[in-house]
Amino acid sequence: MPNKRRVNYGVDAPGVIRNLLIAGAVTIIISFVFPVVKMGSVSIDISWLFWTGAYLSLSGFLMLGYSLFGKFKHRDRMLNLINWSGDEQVLDIGTGKGLLMIGAGKKLTTGKSIGIDIWNEEDLSGNNIENALKNAELEGVKDKIEIKNENAMAMSFADNSFDVILTNLCLHNIYNKEDRNTACKEISRVLKKTGVGIISDFRHVKEYKRDFDQLGLQTTLLSANYFSTFPPLRILVIKKL
Ligand SMILES: C[S@@+](CC[C@H](N)C(=O)[O-])C[C@H]1O[C@@H](n2cnc3c(N)ncnc32)[C@H](O)[C@@H]1O
Asked: Is the CB of 91 under 6 A from ligand 1?
């Protein structure tokens, strides 16, 4: 576990969590204060709204739990899928505050771990390049990492640049299917022959699998760990043969 007093990898989708908790609390309060609504001579029982509120609140708390605790287990699960030798060139797409870029950096001796992002503030609290660099410094891997401002859909790297490509909770933020396909093509392009990609997301993962299959990569879809991730995060392992 990182030094939690100082290292801070942020809360994913903070606005979504806030809205779930507010909507949940309001719905629960309404179900207690107005369990029955009268419209003329008709009485409608809305006490069942309690369960809707409980579901919304629980979802918000589980998402928060992932950000505060589960994401470290999930990072380790992703990184443990790689047979590290220490000299790898690694790319973390949508690195945010550097969770996977830094985790990979710790596995390296002569290799380099590069993180790219476009720093969407709504996707992660405190999401900026300075905070990612600060985390890398606090984790003692500043000399092993490099951070670039780049979009997953149009990367500047040469073909066949990386032994390992990692990405967690990034690609679903590309809202258009064609654009996600473009990002998959870019990942395939910059991955070295015999390189491995670990793609993790909570939606569209079967779509990514189809895209990489069509690009001729070997793909294996792993199930989510329901105890450490919420929403459940599936992992797609891709290999360029
Ligand atoms: C939910 S955060 C996850 C951050 C990090 N991967 C983690 O697991 O802690 C998603 C990240 O993807 C980034 N992102 C979204 N769309 C992107 C794109 N098209 N190219 C690069 N990064 C992107 C966001 O800015 C954000 O930092």
From this structure: no
Q: Which of 154, 151, 180, 161 is nearest to 91 (CA)?
A: 161
Distances (CA, A) of 161 to 105, 106, 114, 231: 17, 20, 11, 32
DSSP E strands: which ranges in the chain?
36-39, 42-45, 89-93, 112-117, 145-149, 162-168, 191-201, 218-222, 234-239
Among candidate residues 153, 148, 172, the one with its CA nearest the CA of residue 91: 148
Domain ranges of the chain: 14-71, 72-239
CATH class of 72-239: alpha beta
Q: The pTM is what?
A: 0.94
101: number of CA atoms within 13 Å, CB side? 31
Peptide bond into 232 cis (omega under 30): no
How big is the CA angle at 130 (ends 105 and 202), to the nearest 5 degrees?
65
What pLDDT score does 1 carry? 53
Mutate to test the pocket of ligand 1, among 7, 116, 170, 228 (most ligand atoms within 8 A of CB): 170
In this prediction, residue 6 carries a pLDDT of: 87
pLDDT tens digits, residue range 133-153? 999 999 999 999 999 999 999
